[in-house]
């Protein structure tokens, strides 16, 4: 600066403006660097969480069956159920038939013994 307090040379003014702009730009760049570091750290935390979630999903996926496998198992169970139902129907029919036959035999035997027993 010159001796006069109100006047400044053009070179000094431009140097002063460039220096202040340089300081402002440095502060902005430092703030941007800090913001980028924070954003990167936040993204890393988020992606770590997502990676853990992905691993948990992969583990849980092993616990479940596919739709095709479930349908196949269900069809096998339906066949077994049908076989059991057929067996039970046949067995019940035989039991009812034998019970009826024994009942009829008992009635006939009772009638014969009453007629001959008198």
List the helices and strands and how they pair.
Layout: H1 10-61, H2 67-117
Parts with pLDDT < 50 across at least 5 consecutive residues: none
**Major sheet, described briefly?**
none
Q: Which word captures the global form?
A: rod-shaped
Q: Estimate the mean pLDDT confidence.
A: 88
The helicity comes to: over 70%
Radius of gyration: 49 Å
Alpha plus pi helix count: 2
* Terminus-to-terminus distance: 155 Å
| Binned strand content | under 5%
Order of helices and strands: HH
Report the count of strand segments.
0
Q: Structural class, please?
A: mainly alpha
Describe what you observe in this structure:
By secondary structure, the protein is mostly helical. 87% of the residues lie in helices and 0% in strands. It has two helices and no strands. The mean pLDDT is 88.
């Amino acid at each position: 600066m010159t001796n006069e307090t109100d006047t400044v040379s053009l070179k000094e003014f431009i140097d002063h403006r460039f220096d202040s702009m340089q300081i402002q730009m440095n502060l902005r760049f430092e703030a941007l660097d800090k913001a980028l570091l924070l954003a990167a750290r936040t993204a890393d935390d988020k992606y770590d969480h997502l990676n853990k979630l992905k691993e948990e999903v992969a583990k849980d996926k092993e616990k479940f069956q596919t739709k095709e496998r479930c349908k196949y198992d269900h069809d096998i169970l339906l066949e077994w159920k049908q076989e059991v139902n057929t067996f039970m129907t046949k067995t019940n029919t035989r039991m009812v038939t034998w019970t009826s036959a024994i009942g009829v035999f008992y009635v006939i035997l009772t009638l014969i013994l009453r007629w001959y027993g008198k």
